[in-house]
Structure formats: structure tokens, C-alpha cells
Amino acid sequence: MSDTYKVKVNQTHEFEFTKKDIDATDALSSTENKFHVIDNHTSYHTEVIESDFNRKAYTVRVNHTDYQVNIADALDMQIAAMGFSLGSSKQVNAIKAPMPGLLLDIHVEPGQEVKEDDPLLILEAMKMENVILSPREGTIKSIAIQKGDAVDKGQLLVEFE
């Protein structure tokens, strides 16, 4: 998986950054949520005003102007490419593997009621454990895999009623 991040600002402007770009940023933390950034010989005073870590959504103040910022990493981009998104996930009736991997654990069983963001299973991919969360409230209809199974990208994992 790449170290590329897509950043959307105010739902109108999109930027792409690599880990190398971020590491090269000249930023100094002045307090927990405030930073001094220098880019192209221009100074910026920044502050993270609000953050929703689970949705990767932030309100960032730059030189007294607030911006709504959404960040997507490589996994987020893969999930979006498979048709999942915050808006459409409420109607998701099936969870498919976002990438090939090994199923380490299953936290649900058929007939079980789940809430949005409840952990469903753990998928190991590229030596990283990825917790697959429920995109909505509902009842688990079926589980198409077993603990220890190797899964392919797009393979059916869990169905909702």
C-alpha cells in the first residue's frame, strides 16, 4: 500500500500528498493543536479547531481562516473505489474484502445485531491488522468466511439482513 494521502478542502479543492512531502514540511508545534508552518518562504499559523478522527474530518484554522479538511489514506481510497463511502454506506448490505489478506478474527455471528462502527472482523494485509467496522446498524444475515481463511480483494465477507 502506498503512502499517498488525498486531502479535500472545503469539499472543493483536492490535493495529493506523499509521506515524503509531509516529512519535508517545515512545521513546528507551538502547543498541542497549534503549529507554525513555513512553505515557500511564507509563514502560516495553523490550529486544529475540531477533529473527528474516525471520519478523518477536521476544521483547521490557517492565518485566521477556517477550512474543512478531509483526509483519505490508501486504504480509504481502496474502500471508496469499491463503492463504499460515508454517504452510501448506510445502504450497504454486504461487506467485501477491500484487499487480499488473511482473516485473523471474526467478532460477529449470524443473527447478531450490530451498530454502526462496531468491529466485524480483523483482516491482516501486508503485515497490518485492519479492523473492518460495520458501516450501519443492522442484523448479520450470514458470514461467508471462517477464521484463518485467505481472502481475495472483493470477496464476500459478511451480509446484512
TrEMBL record:
Protein name as annotated: Biotin-requiring enzyme
Keywords: Biotin
Annotated signal peptide: none
Keyword Cell division applies: no
Domain Lipoyl-binding: 83-161
Keyword Mitochondrion in record: no
InterPro entries tied to this protein: Biotin_BS, Biotin_Carboxyl_Carrier/Decarb, Biotin_lipoyl, Single_hybrid_motif
Domain of life, source organism: Bacteria
Transmembrane segments: none
